[in-house]
Write a structure and sequence with these properties.
heterodimer; A: 439 residues; alpha+beta; Dipeptide-binding Protein, domain 1; D-Maltodextrin-Binding Protein, domain 2; Dipeptide-binding Protein, domain 3; 4-stranded mixed β-sheet; 14 helices; 21 strands; B: 587 residues; 7-stranded antiparallel β-sheet; 5-stranded antiparallel β-sheet; 51% helix; 20% strand
Amino acid sequence: MSAKTGDVGIPTVVNNIAFENLVRLAPDGRPTPWVADRWQLTPSKAVRIHMRPTRFHDGTPLTAAVLAQIVQKSLPRSLDIGAVIPVSDSEIEISQQKASSFILESLDVVTLKKPGAPDIGTGPFVVTSRGEVVEMRANEQYAEGRPKIDRIVVRDYQTVRGAWADMLRGEIDMLYQVGQDALQSLQPSSSVSIFWFQRPYAYIVLFNARRPALKSPEVRRALNLAVNRAQLIHEALDDHATAGAAVSPHHWAYKASIPMFPYDPAAASKVLGRRLHMTCIIQDGPVFERLAITVRKQLEAVGVDVSLEALPLAELIARVTERHDFDAVLFDAQIGPTMFRAYDWWHSGGTHNYGGFSSPRVDAALDAVRDAKTDGEYAAGLAMFQEATLADPPALFLAWGERARAVSRRFEVPVEAGRDVLTTLRLWRPRAGTTENRN
Amino acid sequence: MALRIRRIATRFALLLAVAAIVPLIAYGIVSILSLRLGTRESVIAGNLNVATRAATEIGRYVVANAEILKALAADLQDTGLDPGQQDRILKNYILQFREFHEITLFDEQGAPVVTSRAGRPRLQIPKDTPVSFDGVAMAPIRVDEDLLPTTTFAIHLRRLNQPSGWLVGEFSLEEMWRMVDQIRIGEHGYAMVITPNGDLIAHGDPDKKALVAQARNMSANPLVQAVRGEGVRTAISSEYLNADGRHALGVAASIAPLGWSVIVEQPTGEAYAAATKLQRQLVVAISLALLVMIAAGYLFGRSFIRPIRTLQRATGDVAAGRLDTRVHIDTADEFAELGDAFNAMANRLVELQEDVKRQERQAMFGRVAAGLVHDLSHPVQNIGNASRLLLRDDADAETREMFRRTVERELANLKRFMDDLRNLIKPRPIERFAMDVNATVAETFESIRPEGERTGIAVSAEYAPGPLVIDGDRFALGRVFRNLITNAIQATEPGGQVRIATARAGDRVEITVTDTGSGIPPERLSAIFDDFVTTKRRGLGLGLAISKRIVEQLDGTIAVESAVGRGTSFTLRFPARDDRAAQAEAV
């Protein structure tokens, strides 16, 4: 398996394979049982979670006590949880001051790593060596059954070209991430399968609401009206994205009757009549460059003067998250698939609210979602949020992205609709008649 | 030795084959060769047409995009635009012309002025530009990080006729790949694009695109070598073993003005499949025609000779004595006339046979009558004379006794005569038992010797060491021996010799009766054993016929050798019985 496209490094790849989270999120944002196989709200508003019998890679059991420790450490403070305690051999309880629908959604971030031994997890594969090349072996005691693949080797390639050439030669079996342009070469090949999946990431231009020019909701709304998302997705993303707003259109509670931002350059131009200038920093990379140039062109058409500044990722992160030194930043942000993520980004108290955005209406809507006790309340809150962000958008919402993985056809790969194909890695098997003992 | 074809049917078949099939085969060979050559040329021409069109399209595509950069250069030079304006123009070009990934304007010293990139430019002024056309220099093709074929164009700008910088554009040739990908000849025919150095820059087989990424050099390809040898402007075709070890037909067309070549390669098996199929059909058709012709010739020949065979069979039947054989040939031709003639001949033969039989019967009857008269008259006359004399009163006892013996002798002769006739009419059944030939011959010899001596003939016998045992009828064989010895004595003049000898010859027992008599003329020798054939003045000529019949009934043979004036020898041969039981039983 190879990695290295843009910002994905080996650690991310290994994490996705060797470690499990407590729950899995469906493409529509709902948490689905995984290690936590059932849960319930107790009368005392605690969330009681039951886990299936699970062992760490070293054979030690994942006890309720250890799980409580992991959960306590992993859940964000913004959830305002109390204690996490074991209540039986296989159950823990998460107490909370106030019942929150985000508790279950947030379990997606709870990665099961053995305390004090971060290389030991509970996933289908066990890390056996680390270095420039990471090797993993099948977990013989995996709770869902031993994987059919015995061994996985993850290595980093300097260029996609090198990885692709090796893949077409049959020396590697998977490209973790395939760029859009590379698909032109890979898709027709008879030896490779391409698997698309929806990402919980959206391409946005985050506005720094602290800047005077961008303080006004009307300005930010006009900027959203000035972008022709369909054209942008076609020109810059090769139609592999979904136009959207602050909520993923795939979310289970998404209300399609609430319109997204229309393309109305005339209305935008009326608001942005005076020349607005802003500098947009972007992550260095062809996709972001193309997006940025397209957005800039469309904004220039309505009188906005946009300067582009490309930065390496580390520098961009520092400027945005630490120094807040930006007008606008173009990047792909994980603002879905749950409203827990959206809360984090757009609530005035959210930990990822780097733009300093604050809107009482948005806050109220997000609070309503957080405090919802039923699906109905949740959906109502989400609808409020959709409308609130239409009126006062914290960012320029461009599109929800897709990603592709390339896998050698010598493997039979079960696919779950809408999901990343890696979620079924434990079920992959070599096709009959193919060589089994290969990297 | 020359081949002799005896059968008319075969001759007919071969005649038809030679007359009809040889031209057909000759035509077929010529057709196949023409087809093969024509198809090959047609396939090559078709593939060349595809390669040429692709080369033209690719050339136009590259040149067109170079023209875009030239148009941009025209927008930038001598127009007095500030860097901000230039920056917008470049970025708009990037959005508008997706084949360009980056366009950067450099000053004459090589420092970037403005770029289409949001960040720092990646391009540099290319140093290596092996291809140049119409003011645009083009760097070698490479595969970039996005797995796309890329090159760099560079235009040297001039302002007021002075060099004023460079406009450099990174240009993606993915459209060229799409063009090449769309070229499919049959199931396995693909196109590829090669630089003058032999570098592979495009391959229509998606599974072979890795070769492009590996910067595979195709100089070892025989067609590539031919292209480099022949020059850039020639369209070439060749058959060779490709990199996969398969026989392939390759055609090449050059892409002017880039110096690249488009090669279209197709496995020869597939390329010539249609022709091969037609050839096969032609061969099958000719073979079928040949078989039909041969079969027709053979059948026609058979029907032609059927009357001949009929006549042949009928002739054989007639030769075998079936004179009632007739033929029916209704072919209404000369064969029918021949059949009629045959039938007429057969009728005539029957008539002649009847005549012959009648004449033979008459002759035989006459002979028999003459023999009867001859043989009977003497004894009857003697008996009559003797009887009359016996009746005379003056005959004394001695005379009476003589006449009585005469009567008895002649009666015995008559009795023998009657026995011969009776035996002829109703042969006495042969009884087979082990008998000693020596004993039987000796017994017969002893009884006849006095007669021979009386006539002045020396009669002798010679016996092989015995016993000589055969399965025989002692009485019948005794008669045979008596007949032969008697004949020999009768045929020999006084002073002559008659000798009887027995011998063992292999698994046979031989009895030979030899005389020094008058001999038998050769023309009568062959019929000596026939009924009513005799050389004697007296007799019906039945003795030898009866003897032969008896010998043959006992599984033996009788043969005669004779020379006129020297004598005759009769030899009888019988299968010997050597088993002890037979020898103990023999009498």
